[in-house]
Amino acid sequence: MTNRPVYRSLYRRWRPQRFSEVVGQVEIIQTLRNAVLTGKISHAYLFAGERGIGKTTIARILARAVNCLHPAEGEPCNTCANCMLISNQRAIDVIEIDGASNRGIDHIRQLREGVQFSPAELRYKVYIIDEVHMLTNEAFNALLKTLEEPPPRVLFVFATTEPHKLPATIISRCQAFDFTKIPPEKIALRIKDICHQEGITIEDGAVALLSRKANGALRDPLVMLEQAVAFAQKGPIIAQDLLDMLGAVGPEFITAFFNALIKGDHQQVLLQIADLVERGKEIELFLGDLISFVRDTIVSDGTATEEVHLTVAQRIELCQGLLLLKQDLVRSIDQRIIVEVGILGIMNELGLSPQRSGTIADLPAKPAANLQHNGQRSLSNTPSRLSTPHKADADRTTPPKAATDNSFAKQWEALFTVIEQERISIAAFLSEGEPSLDKNRLQIAFDRKYSFHKESLEKRENLQYLVGMVRRYLGPEIDIDIRFADGVTRRLSPTEELQKKAELVCQIFAGKIVKEE
Hints:
- The protein is an alpha/beta fold.
- The chain has 4 domains: 10-178, P-loop containing nucleotide triphosphate hydrolases (Rossmann fold); 184-246, Helicase, Ruva Protein, domain 3 (Orthogonal Bundle), CATH 1.10.8; 252-355, Zinc Finger, Delta Prime, domain 3, CATH 1.20.272; 358-489, DnaA, N-terminal domain (GMP Synthetase, Chain A, domain 3), CATH 3.30.300.
- It has 23 helices and 8 strands.
- It has helices spanning 10-13, 26-38, 55-67, 81-87, 105-115, 137-148, 168-171, 184-198, 204-213, 219-232, 239-246, 251-262, 266-278, 283-300, 312-330, 335-349, 365-369, 393-397, 405-422, 424-430, 451-457, 460-474, 494-509, and strands spanning 44-48, 94-98, 125-130, 154-160, 175-178, 434-438, 441-446, 479-484.
- The strands form 2 sheets. The chain has a 5-stranded parallel sheet, covered by helices on one side.
- Helix 3 (55-67) runs antiparallel to helix 4 (81-87), helix 8 packs across helix 9 and helix 19 packs antiparallel against helix 20 (424-430).
- The longest helix has 19 residues, at 312-330.
- It starts with 9 loop residues before the first helix and ends in an 8-residue tail after the last helix.
C-alpha cells in the first residue's frame, strides 16, 4: 500500500466552489444569489445549456448555499458542517441522479416516496437530476404530481442539454435558466490563471488555441490542457504540440486550403486532403475549422486577404455546403472519399473553376490504382475532364464530350468492379438497373418491379457514395438520374454471363456442369 494521495483531474481541482468563482452566466448567478439572500427559494429550477458550461457545478453551489449555516451575501461559506457534508458527498439529503441511467417510472416512484420525508440533517432536501430529458413519458407524468404539490423544504434542480425534449408541463413549473457559451476571452483568462497557479508554462498561441477549441465550455479546454501537460512532460506547452495532440491543423493550412478552394484548384485541394489523411489529422476537426474560417470571412468581409474574390452570397452558400458535408461525415465510414467528393461538388456548384483543366491522370495515383482488377486497364489512363473552365457563358452550357457507347461500357464495367469490391450491397442494387450516359448525365433505369433496388440506391448514404465514385472516375460534372423506365433489360453480371455461356455449351454438346470440390 502507498500513502500517495489520490490524483484529481485538473478540471475537478479547479471547479468553482462559490458563485463568484463561476466564469460567465452573470445574470443567472445574480438571480440565484438574490434568491438565497432573500430566502425566496423556488421549489424547482431548470438549467439548460450545452455540456461543460457549469450547469451541474452551479446546482451543487446552490445546494450548499441554501443549506449553509453561515451564508454571506448569498454565497456558501464552504466551512460549516453542512457545507462540508455536501462537498464531501456525504449528505444524505442531497441526491444526484443521472437521468440517463434512472429514467424509468420505478426510479421516479422511489423519488416521490423519498420526497415525502423531511430532511434528515439539512435545511433543504435537494434533488439534482442531470440529463433530465432522458426520462420516459411515464416518469415525467409521475414527477409532475410532485412538482404540482411539492412538499416543504424540497428543492429540485434539473439539468439538460436538450430542453426541447422536456414536456411543457414540466418546464412551466420550473424557474428556467438558459446557460450561454462562455466567451473565448474569458476562457483564455481562466486558463492563464490556472496555469500560473499550477506552475504550467504555456505560450499565448496555445492558450488562444485552447480557448477556440473550447466551443464555449470551460471543462473541455481544462481536459485538453491536462493532456497537453502530459504530452509536453516538463517542457513549455506550445501551439504546435496541441495541434499534433488534437489531430488538428494550424491556421496557415486552413488559409491555404481555402485559397485553393476558391481558385477552383481541384488538384491542390485533393493533394491537401491527402496530406491531412497521411498525417493522421482528424478530418471532422479540419472541416469544423474550415467552417469557422469561412464564417469569419463572412463577418469580416475578408476580401483583402483572398486571392480570388467571393461574394457574400457565395460565402454563405459555401458555409452551408460545408455544414451539410460535416453532418454527412459523422455517418460515413470512408471519410476521405466523402470529403473529396463533397468539396469538389461544392466547388462545381459555386462555379469555382481552375485556371487550367486537368484529367484524372493528373491526380495522385493511389485512388486510381484501386481500379486495376483482373488485368483490366485503370481508369486513371482514361481521359476524363476534371473540371470545365468558365471563361464565358457559352462554356458554362457546353457539356463535356460524351463517351462513345463502347468506351462507356468499359468504364462502367471497371467502375462496377470497384463498387462490387467496396460496397457489395450497392453493386447488388445496381445490377438490376440499366446505366446509360447522355452527355453529362448518367441515367440508371429500373423496371418498376425493382422499386426496392431503386429506393435503396436513393438512400442518402448510398447515393452519396455512388455520386462520389461516378464523379471521381467519370468526371466531376457528371450528374446521376435514377428513374423508372419500361422495358428495362437487366444487365447480367460477369459471373452470370459465364454461367449462361456454359449452359449453352452444355446444350450443344449434351454435357453437364459439374462442380469441382
